[in-house]
Amino acid sequence: MAVPSNRIPLTGLARKLVADGLLDEQEAARVFQAAVAAKTPFVKYVVDQKLVDPKTVAHAASQEFGAPLVDIEALEIDPDVVKLVSIELIQRHHALPIFKRGNRVYIGIADPTNLQALDEIKFHIGANTEAVLVEQHKLQKAIEKSLAAADAGMDNLADSDFENLDDLEVGAPQEALPENAEVDDAPVVRFINKVLLDAIKRGASDLHFEPYEKVYRVRFRIDGMLTEIAKPPLALAGKIAARIKVMSRLDVSERRVPQDGRIKLKLSKTKSIDFRVNTCPTLFGEKCVMRILNSDSGALDINLLGYEDFQKELFLKNLQKPYGMFLVTGPTGSGKTVSLYTGINILNQEDINISTAEDPVEINLAGVNQVQVDERTGMTFPKALKAFLRQDPDIILVGEIRDLETASIAVKAAQTGHMVMSTLHTNDGPQTLTRLQDMGVAPFAVATTINLITAQRLARRLHPELRTPIDVPPEALLKEGFAPEDVEAGFRLYGPGSSSDCPSGYKGRVGIYQVMPISDGMKRLIIEGANAVQLADQSAAEGIWDIRKSGLNKARRGITSLAEINRVTVE
Fold first, then answer.
1. Are 388 and 396 in contact (CB under 8 A)?
2. Are residues 247 and 210 in the same domain?
């Protein structure tokens, strides 16, 4: 009998279950469609609905796809192997690393058609992966047990006194504490320890401890947005500030001036998290802000940053030039350091001498000579740069060009055969060119030394499973700045959905870039004294995308929302 036209042809495991007489064809088709509608793997849906015994499904999948079947309950899963893959990937793909042999990691899965899981995990851990089949319900138990063990480890740590916190700042010895400092108050110690670990687990970039007249609050900055997470009693304000200052090796008795410190939290023998700490006296007490410094060099992958293909090509092309300046610009917290270190990571070869001067050193990279700038000891950016030039450098990274002296030395280094990489706090590429001239750098020097300027912002990514389509009239799209040809061709914009696990509808962030090489036409305008508007017009005429256009393209592709682009870019 002919198959009705509205019936989905069965393939893979569904066909195997029908052939083995475990499901009839009509029921298999219905289950397949229901699983697709529920966005649930076919195997999980069949087992959850108790249509076929889990062990029978696993045997059928093993025969159909030729993957080995493993009894996961008979294995002792190595927690270190589980830690190779993030909790988010394990939960999203329902896949668990169970053991490792050489450079191959074996991944337990219940759905052998889930090739995306293996590809993402392989990319994430940088090792070869091989799938082994596990019964659905046993895999679920193993995942829950492994993640519960990981959480238990964090909970135990939260109750500790953080005996492994070390000061990384170089300076004068810590002054004796006043007898009445009361910084070892047990509830305060436990509260701060819990807050630090919550910030790490939730992926926060900054922590704010803020005293006001009638309330005290703690906020996290997550994906660029501040969120209130606690309101401890106002009476604890002084003790919280004192405890943070003790952990940061700051002067507890000094409450009149800002102080800078650093905390190193050792989570294990191989894993540590650094916090940069600043205290500032306010009207009702000391506000403390901590920046979590991501020292994971494994995250420095240019393919993950959000560059368009042609922007990435410009980035890599100019990165390979033997001399000149490579500048990254944007506001605080826009990912400039990650962009710079992604370039440094690419250039970090045995035959290249790289030196950096930073305040602070945020990412530790083997093979790179990193200097911590410290105004208190006299180690300034200019002094570090002068020292670098006597040490046979190939590449020099300056954390930030703040003044004319630093800018002048950097320009001279670029003119004498060195690649200089640095950051500035400006809004876009054209403004960077005029900002250097405002500092006092000669227009000719600006025109002849700068190879490339990358301006950037960070926008929140839409959660791919929660995003919802929105309808925007064509005239509104044109007003926002979308290209007429794109509007005519038609595309779908998305907004954030929400769930109990992700109430904002956003998850993670993506970079939005203006990658602007300095062309001959741009050089002529700089020497002639053109302003930022004229330089921007020249850049647009040369086909360079500004940040707004780059952001609108991210929205058009459904990576982020138009509202988010409007938040981080100028309309």
1. yes
2. yes
Angle 435-439-441 from CA coordinates, rounded to 5°: 95
64 in a structural domain = yes
Q: Is the Cβ–Cβ distance between 83 and 150 less than 8 Å?
A: yes
Whether 87 and 201 have beta carbons less than 8 Å apart is answered as no
Give the chain's count of helices (H) and strands (E): 22, 18
Residue 162 lies in a domain: no
Instruction: With a cut of 90, say whether residue 190 has pLDDT above it.
Output: no
Q: Name the residue with higher pLDDT: 413 or 186.
A: 413
CA dihedral sign, ordered 231, 237, 239, 244: positive
Domain closes at, from 265, 292, 319 = 292
CA distance 247 to 174: 11
Q: Does residue 161 register a pLDDT over 50?
A: no
Amino acid 270: pLDDT: 64
Other Cβ atoms closer than 10 A to 387: 14
Average model confidence (pLDDT) for the chain?
Answer: 83
Q: Residues 450, 327: one domain?
A: yes
Tell me the pLDDT tens digit for each residue of 321-347.
999 999 999 988 888 988 999 999 999
CA dihedral 331, 334, 337, 342 (to 10 degrees): -140
When pLDDT is averaged across residues 267-273 and rounded to a whole number, the result is 72
Beta-carbon contacts of 90 under 8 Å, excluding residues fewer than 6 positions away, are: 82, 96, 143, 146, 147
Q: Could you tell me if 378 and 527 lie in one domain?
A: yes
Cα–Cα distance for residue pair 399/486, rounded to 1 Å = 39
Domain C-terminal end among 233, 258, 292: 292
Measured CA to CA, the distance from residue 556 to residue 561 in angstroms comes to 8
Range of the domain at 220: 186-292
Domain of 365, CATH number, reads 3.40.50.300
**How many Cβ atoms sit within 10 Å of the Cβ of residue 211?**
20
Residue 268's pLDDT is 67
Looking at the fold, whether 141 and 210 belong to one and the same domain comes out as no
Q: What number of other Cβ atoms are within 10 A of residue 541's Cβ?
A: 10
Same domain, 400 and 527: yes
pLDDT at 179: 41
Query: Worst-scoring range by mean pLDDT, 136-150, 428-442, 495-509?
Result: 136-150
Q: Computed over its alpha carbons, how large is the radius of gyration of the chain? A: 28
For residues 87 and 501, give the distance between their C-alpha atoms in angstroms, rounded to a whole number: 14
In the chain, what's the furthest Cα-to-Cα distance? 92
The dihedral region occupied by 565, where left means phi > 0, alpha psi between -120 and 50, and beta the remainder, is alpha
